[in-house]
């Protein structure tokens, strides 16, 4: 390396390579989109914190009981065997996200993403304790004093309390929250419950309190591949450069066109309200979460100046270029069709779902045995799962071989709601009717009090072949 090149490398500031994070203090904004975002945050937080309190038929309405491997959702009970429904639901959610992104960009990020929702809550707490954006910046730059310590301590204490409540409610979706509350008050929480309360609580505290926009900018993969779903008809937050440039300050009521200026007064409020700290006037950036805070504040400035609104707005690239916009385009149609088909298939499958499961386990200790009467006998263990919300007594029938005998309970098999009963049975067949070493059987199980609850499960009968 030459001496000149060496000097150039040595003169490169280290902070340019490893940039230190600049803390962002988003300015509070009012407007239609801010109101929509506030409403969305309140609704989603209400569902999260109040959801475990809902009761249904004497139990928690929504409960994911992992130890019992039962998942209660109002009238339904789902078992691990119903995992396919969860997979289908995740596929539907992904398709819906793709559709929304193709139509309206990152509105999910700006209004409904958990990172955004909890960050908004933490920002609200911060403003209540430390004051406005200007007050927060002044406090942050000031040296340590009793007043600063008191405000910072109060803020973090409330943040931590709120985070621990969040972790507690999270566990309440998996453990009945009434029971969880009682055991918390009596200091009888189990180690795993304590772990998840603390883990989820501190994750909330770290993500929403400290990392904030860093999660959206560097950790979230959605920000990286969202552009693959964008096209020139996708709604995005855009600055009308043709109308706004050249930007510059001016007096209210002045003829800015005669002064050779655009509509942008260069107030920088759009930057101050941005939760990720970007300047929307630089064009669409992956850091933009589509919250429209800059739209609200810019419209407020335009209204005060007496200018036309929507210098910054939800618009499309085609609209900015004066081209025709198209709502129904191939990718949107494909997403809509996939979403409709997937949703209807899931709903139809759940509607036709029989709340009854039957596992047949054949005795592996012996292939078969011959009884004193000369019959060939196989022994089976039945696992009957009552996935309904009430008790049922089931009748059992077996077919597939002529003249078979089933040693089964005369009064049927009683299974309480949401439980599994193990029951052994013996099936005997006259060897004259066995045509192969393995013969297919069909087990018929149906509820005695409800003919609509019935299933058929196949099995095998093993025996010698005499013909």
Q: Tags for this entry?
A:
disordered N terminus, Immunoglobulin-like, 19% strand, alpha+beta
Short précis:
The chain is α+β, with helices and mostly antiparallel strands and 467 residues long. It has helices spanning 3-10, 14-17, 32-50, 83-104, 107-111, 114-130, 133-141, 146-172, 177-185, 191-211, 213-219, 222-225, 241-244, 269-272, 293-305, 317-320, 330-351; strands spanning 55-56, 59-60, 62-65, 70-73, 76-78, 236-239, 312-315, 356-362, 369-370, 376-386, 392-399, 405-407, 413-415, 420-429, 438-447, 450-462.
Could you explain how this protein is built, in words?
The strands form 5 sheets. Strands 8, 9, 10, 12 and 14 form a 5-stranded antiparallel beta sheet that branches. The chain has a domain of 107 residues: Immunoglobulin-like (Sandwich). β9 and β10 form a beta hairpin. The longest helix is centred in the middle third of the chain and has 27 residues. The chain contains 17 helices and 16 strands. It is α+β, with helices and mostly antiparallel strands and 467 residues long. It starts with a helix and ends in a 5-residue tail after the last strand. The protein is 43% helix and 19% strand. The N terminus is likely disordered.
């Amino acid at each position: 390396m030459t001496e000149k090149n060496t000097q150039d490398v040595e003169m490169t500031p280290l902070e340019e390579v490893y940039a230190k994070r600049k803390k962002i203090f988003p300015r509070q904004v009012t407007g239609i989109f801010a109101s929509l975002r506030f409403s969305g945050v309140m609704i989603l937080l209400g569902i999260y914190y109040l959801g475990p309190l809902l009761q249904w038929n004497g139990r928690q309405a929504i409960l994911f009981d992992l130890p019992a491997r039962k998942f209660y959702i109002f009238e339904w009970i789902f078992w691990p065997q119903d995992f396919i429904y969860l997979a289908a639901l995740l596929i539907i959610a992904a398709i819906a996200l793709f559709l929304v992104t193709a139509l309206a960009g990152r509105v999910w990020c700006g209004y409904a993403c958990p990172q955004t929702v909890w960050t908004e809550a933490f920002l609200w707490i911060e403003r209540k304790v430390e004051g406005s954006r200007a007050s927060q910046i002044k406090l942050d730059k000031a040296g340590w004093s009793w007043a600063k310590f008191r405000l910072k301590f109060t803020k973090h204490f409330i943040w931590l309390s709120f985070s621990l409540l969040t972790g507690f409610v999270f566990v309440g979706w998996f453990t009945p929250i009434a029971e969880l509350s009682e055991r918390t008050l009596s200091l009888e929480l189990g180690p795993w419950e304590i772990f998840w309360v603390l883990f989820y609580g501190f994750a909330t505290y770290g993500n929403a309190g400290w990392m904030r926009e860093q999660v959206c900018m560097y950790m979230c993969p959605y920000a990286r591949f969202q552009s693959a779903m964008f096209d020139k008809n996708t709604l995005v937050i855009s600055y009308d450069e043709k109308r706004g440039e050249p930007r510059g300050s001016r007096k209210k009521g002045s003829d800015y066109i005669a002064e050779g200026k655009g509509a942008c007064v260069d107030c920088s409020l759009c930057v101050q309200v941005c939760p990720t700290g970007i300047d929307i006037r630089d064009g669409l950036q992956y850091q933009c979460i589509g919250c429209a805070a800059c739209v609200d504040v810019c419209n407020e400035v335009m209204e005060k100046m007496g200018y036309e609104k929507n210098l910054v707005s939800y618009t499309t690239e085609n609209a900015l270029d004066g081209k025709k916009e198209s709502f129904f385009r191939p990718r949107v149609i494909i997403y809509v069709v996939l979403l409709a088909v997937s949703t209807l298939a899931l709903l139809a499958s759940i509607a036709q779902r029989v709340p009854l499961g039957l596992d047949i386990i054949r005795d592996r200790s012996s292939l078969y045995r011959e009884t004193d009467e000369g019959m060939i006998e196989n022994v089976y263990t039945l696992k009957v799962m009552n996935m309904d919300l009430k008790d049922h007594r089931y009748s059992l029938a077996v077919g597939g071989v002529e003249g078979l005998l089933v040693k089964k309970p005369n009064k049927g098999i009683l299974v309480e709601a949401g439980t599994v009963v193990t029951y052994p049975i013996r099936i005997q067949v006259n060897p004259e009717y066995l045509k192969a070493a393995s013969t297919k059987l069909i087990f018929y199980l149906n509820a005695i009090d409800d003919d609509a609850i019935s299933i058929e499960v196949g099995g095998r009968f093993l025996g010698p072949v005499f013909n």
